[in-house]
Write a structure and sequence with these properties.
By secondary structure, the chain is an alpha/beta fold. The chain has two domains: 3-174, Carbamate kinase (3-Layer(aba) Sandwich); 255-405, VC0802-like. It contains 13 helices and 18 strands. The chain has helices spanning 16-31, 46-57, 63-70, 72-87, 97-100, 119-126, 153-164, 197-205, 213-222, 275-285, 314-328, 355-365, 389-399; strands spanning 3-8, 35-40, 92-95, 102-104, 113-116, 130-134, 137-139, 145-147, 168-173, 194-196, 226-230, 238-241, 254-270, 290-295, 302-310, 332-345, 372-376, 379-385. Strands 3-6-2-1-9-11-12-10 form an eight-stranded mixed β-sheet, sandwiched between helices. Helix 1 crosses helix 4, helix 7 (153-164) runs parallel beside helix 9 and helix 10 (275-285) packs antiparallel against helix 11 (314-328). Residues 9-10, 41-42, 47, 73, 135-136, 150-153 line the site of aspartic acid.
Length: 410
Amino acid sequence: MGLIVQKYGGSSVADTDHIKRVAERIVKRKRAGNQVVAVVSALGDSTDELIELAQQITENPPKREYDKLVSTGEQVSVSLLAMAINELGEDVISLSGSQIGIITDDLHAKAKILRVNPERLEQELDQDKIVIVAGFQGVTSDNEITTLGRGGSDTTGVALATALDADLCEIYTDVDGVYTADPRIVEGACKLNGVSYDEMLEFASLGAEVLHPRSVEIAKEYGIKLVVKSSFYCCPGTYIKEVEELEKDIVVTGVTCNSDTVKLSLIGVPDQPGVASRIFTGLAEDGINVDMIIQNVDYDGLNDITFTIGTEDLAHTKVNLKALQEELGYKELVYDTEVAKVSIVGAGMVTNPGVAAKMFEALAEEDINIEMISTSEIKVSCLIDKEKSDRAVKVIHDKFNLDQLCDSDV
Ligand code: ASP
Ligand code: MG
């Protein structure tokens, strides 16, 4: 018995039959004596469809209007789910991000939650209602609608769990947990029983798509117990939690691939102090996350600066950098969308040398060229040709014998 926050992804509420099944699941938890708050994503691919509509009008929609548009997907799903629960005879209310008071900063399309006012939620729960909350959205202190970035409903779920001091936050999705690699790519990929917050944060940031990175950050900060489960089968799922033992004997716990990445190069940038700062400050002010960065050696007082960003930021980045061309005096901007970032993650890497070398060896054996490399204490990433990314994930999974990790706690 307790207060449970659940989150259901788009695939779990893809159509009205799915919605009715989710309603039954929620009602069952309620009737077992729990208070239940459920956060939902938009139906199936409906967010993609809304974005597609905007793209038919402009490549570069004003971000305020973009947020107003895409936040509507979740308005549909919460109401339908509340109707389905009502049909089952339970008291229920659906609420939007602004109705609750999920207050965010004003970085449209990538807003961060600043605080959640728990009063309205607590009032409804006190009246013994099930509360259904629209994921992925909030409002600024000026009452402008914002969204949290693709996949952001996970973050809504964890933020509500934090504000309500919930006993558990369950993330329901179409996979039954966190795997050592995408099981659609690697046949022998293993489901893990437990993953540390830090490893999960790397997996999520690297594009593993199971959880929104910010949700893991908040869960770690506030010690929220998080579990990823399938809404289709009944399995224990994967727990995300504090790492238990300091000595890690499992060095690499997973391999992921992110194909939503673009490599950009500024060719012929004057080699002077302050230039890199000018470029990357401008991008940061526009809310564009830059990932890997390489600056090559100087030739005739010029450099080439190469870096990667997420595909969704390409249009804004091009506008931003073109505006800087005259001021900086660089010669040319080129970009390549046919790249993918393959990464290995593992908390045990810190104390085990030779891990990166082993990954490079796996790629070399397959004749896969590495275009860029970046590392952190617990991950190594390589940018490679997008076409070869599935093969890369398979050979790296093999090289580190990750098929031995089934049902382990890493
Ligand atoms: N509906 C939004 C998306 O598709 C948010 C979410 O699914 O979490 O990105
Ligand atoms: Mg979605």
